[in-house]
Design a protein that fits this description.
Residues 14-67 form the HTH cro/C1-type domain. One of its GO terms (molecular function) is DNA binding. It holds the Pfam family HTH_3. There is one protein chain. Among the domains are: 7-72, 434 Repressor (Amino-terminal Domain) (Orthogonal Bundle), CATH 1.10.260.40; 312-429, Tetratricopeptide repeat domain (Serine Threonine Protein Phosphatase 5, Tetratricopeptide repeat, Alpha Horseshoe). Helix 14 (236-252) packs parallel to helix 16, helix 15 packs antiparallel against helix 16 and helix 18 packs antiparallel against helix 19 (336-346). It is mainly alpha-helical and 447 residues long. It has helices at 7-20, 25-29, 35-42, 50-60, 64-69, 75-91, 95-111, 115-132, 135-148, 154-170, 174-190, 196-212, 216-229, 236-252, 256-273, 276-293, 296-312, 316-332, 336-346, 356-372, 376-393, 396-412, 416-430.
Amino acid sequence: MAKRDDPATIGLRVQRLRRERGLTQRQLAEPVYTPAYISTLESGRVRPSDDALRHLAGRLGVAFDELATGRPAHLATGLRLRLTEAQRVLASGATEEAARQYAGLLTEAESHGLPDAEYSALLGLGECALDSGDLTTARERFERAERTLADAPLPARVPALRGRAVAHYLAGELRYAVYLLESTLDELNRGGLHDPDALLLLYATVIGPYMDMGAHARAAQAAEFALALAPRAADPALVARMHRSVARTLLAEGRVAEADASLAKAAEMYRQLQIRTELANCHWMRGYVYAQHGDLERAEAELRSAQGMLSAQRAALYSSQVAVELADVLHRRGRSDEAAALLHGVLGDLSSERGAVHAAAAHRLLGRIAEAARDTETAEEHYVRALSLLERAGAAGDLADLCRLLGDLLRRTGRVEAALDAYRTGLGHRTAPGTTTLGPAPARPPL
């Protein structure tokens, strides 16, 4: 139940409503209470019981909550309906309009002291900021959402925790993103808080940073847990997101057909739910699957579809990340000049604090293109930039491959000692993929 106002505020409210209805204190009091009690209540000298408030609300023709808190009847219900509409607008790709609606709802929820609605509005604003690539604002919104429900059970705060982890992940802070997700999973499982939606959301989210860090075994285990939890989840959009994430682990295991089938399930669910941004991400992931399998024509078509949808939604960061993967496909199809132009066009949107892994991938590909053109100096510059980005992010798998490219380049130009240093750096990250930067695995769910 919402917190009641103080006795003086309630007393003034009762007095105002009584006079508006032309009732005397005796008429309001009968048959249970006395006029003297109403007089004492209206002066704020007594704290009315719930029974007294229910009697007065009935006589005054208002809802109990409205009399106790001053909130208009059905306010919370109306806010929930409008939050659902804002969520639909965001799903359609109209990020700016959704942000405007969420901001208005947040102000209204704050003014009426409705923490649940305030939390939902902050989550929506955080998601809008993620879509637009404003990672600092996204983190601030999610952190504020966590504080809003600080006293609530952990499962209720999981969406905000997940949002904050995604913001750190997109900023290239892979280790911290994994720490947030794993510590939350550990707390849920050890504490017996086995909420299927909360666990599924966390396991589906942690797969991406695991894969980028080279922790393939943990990614596969997270996918296994997610698949087992899916039948218990109540949110179909969450199940669709899980299928999209799991496809990456299936692909890493060489199970291409299963990965494609998983993405097809996700895409169909997103079409039914009319979630356009996530549908774009499905095209993106299918393009990645086709590229890894060597079907470059279909990969290009899927990635162009994803980029077109994301650009139309002004999802600048995601659109730039797709462009990097599209450039790789174009290069592999013999269109290196087109690939290089595309990469130079999006590098301004990527940095060590914003899409670090894809920024490194862009520099790596530009280095390979420069090497093919026998411009070893430019190639080395790009490789060194990529190395710095990947070391900061802790992306072990990509870092090892880059060190091999840099080492080969240095060896060919006669700098053997520098080449050996590059190879050693790569081997150090390949020694035990995913274990050099991660602690013990979190507690398992009771499956």
